[in-house]
Amino acid sequence: MEDTQNTYLKLKGVHKNEKACFIVGAGPSLFFASQNKNFNKIFEHVVISVNSSIMLMPWKEGEKDKRFFISCDHLCTRWSYWLDYVIPARCIKIVRSSWFKYKDELPGFLYFRPRSTSEGIIDPKEDALSYPSSCPSAVDLALQMGCKNIFLLGVDHDKIGEKVHFWDFFSEATRPRQIRPAQSNYNVQSRTFPINLEAYRGLLGFSRVMSANIYNVNPQSKVEIFKKITFDDIFKILENK
Question: Which class in CATH covers the domain with range 4-239?
Answer without folding.
Answer: alpha beta
